[in-house]
Every structure is written in structure tokens, then in C-alpha cells.
Amino acid sequence: MKERTANNIHEAFVGEAKAYQRLLEFARKAEEEGFPQIAHLFRAVASSESVHSRRHFRLLESIRDTQTNMEQAFEQENAVNGVYYPKMITEAEEDGEKNAALVFTHARDVEAVHGKLYKKALENFAEEKFVEYHVCGVCGYVHENEAPDSCPVCGAPREKFFRVE
Ligand code: FE2
Ligand code: FE2
Ligand code: FE2
């Protein structure tokens, strides 16, 4: 594939993935403001955008076998928690954006946990053992088995955790 088209596909994938998240937030807001039908429309279009983003991603042909995908996912986590977020945290602090710095710090810490989870799963790749996962709805922290009493990353109480299907 020519580089230009590959770049366009990537750009389209990122754009559609962003639209999906944005529209879900718009739907939540519409719900809050008492417009359930508009919320419904936002969710419908969001679902459609997610079909687009998935379809574009598949065009990129970057999905390989599961072990390779896990290794790639692990590397990606190391990059975000070791390089990208630390830089963003420093810059947010320099700019006096305390809230952004805090949110980035939580994300960085959670990405480190993702890395550990992948590493562990890669080490036990052959014997697939069942683990329950609970995710903190505030910061995204992933906890194995029972949800903790409070989130070790952001301090949210247990009720904020949801179980992953
Ligand atoms: Fe779209
Ligand atoms: Fe991550
Ligand atoms: Fe949390």
C-alpha cells in the first residue's frame, strides 16, 4: 500500500475512534439535560462511528497473532507510561494545570499496571487461567479478581468499580 493511503487510513481510524468517544459524552450530557431521544441519536451515530473505526483499523492489517499482539500492547504501555505521560505531566505542571497533571498521573500509573498485567499473561501464555477483572470507573485502574475497597491509584470507593465481561 502507498504511504499516503496508509496515513489516510490511520488518520480516519483515529478520527472515527475520537468521534465515538465524543458522541458518547454528548449522549450522557443530553441525558442529563433531559433529552433522551437526542441521547439515543448520539449513541446511534457513535455506534456507527465505531463500525467505521474498526473497519479502518482492519484495513491497516496491523492485527497479528495473539502473542505478537500482546507483545506489541506491552511495548505500547511502556512507551505511554515511561515517555509520553511523564512529558505531559511535566508540561501540565509547568503550565499550572493541576487537574490535567493529576489526570495524566493517574493514567500513567494505570498504564504501568496494564504493562504488568500483559507481562504476567505473557509469562503464563500457554496455561490460560481464568482471572476476573474489575475496572475503576474514575481512573481506569484494572484490578484482578475481587474489586478492592478503594482504588489504589485514585482513591475511588469500591462502588465505582465495574466488572469486565
Ligand atoms: Fe464515521
Ligand atoms: Fe494502557
Ligand atoms: Fe481509580
Number of helices: 4
Q: Compounds present? A: fe (ii) ion
Give the tally of β-strands: 3
Shape: globular
Order of helices and strands: HHHHEEE
User: What is the arithmetic mean of pLDDT?
Assistant: 95
Helix and strand content put the structural class at mainly alpha
Spans of 5+ residues with little confidence (pLDDT < 50)?
A: none
Strand content: 5-15%
Oligomer kind: single chain
Gyration radius, rounded: 18 Å
Largest sheet: number of strands, sense, barrel closure? 3 strands, antiparallel
Rounded to the nearest angstrom, the distance between the terminal CA atoms is 37 Å
User: Helix fraction?
Assistant: 55-70%
Order of strands across the widest beta sheet?
A: 2-1-3
Topology record:
Blueprint: H1 3-32, H2 36-59, H3 66-94, H4 98-123, E1 133-136, E2 142-144, E3 161-163
Antiparallel strand pairs: 1-2, 1-3
Helix pairs in contact: 1-2, 3-4
Give structural notes.
- This protein has 165 residues and is mainly α.
- Helices cover 66% and strands 6% of the residues.
- It has four helices and three strands.
- A three-stranded antiparallel sheet has the order 2-1-3.
- A hairpin with a 5-residue loop joins strand 1 and strand 2.
- Helix 1 packs antiparallel against helix 2 and helix 3 runs antiparallel to helix 4.
- The chain starts with a helix and ends with a strand.
- The model has no long low-confidence stretch (mean pLDDT 95).
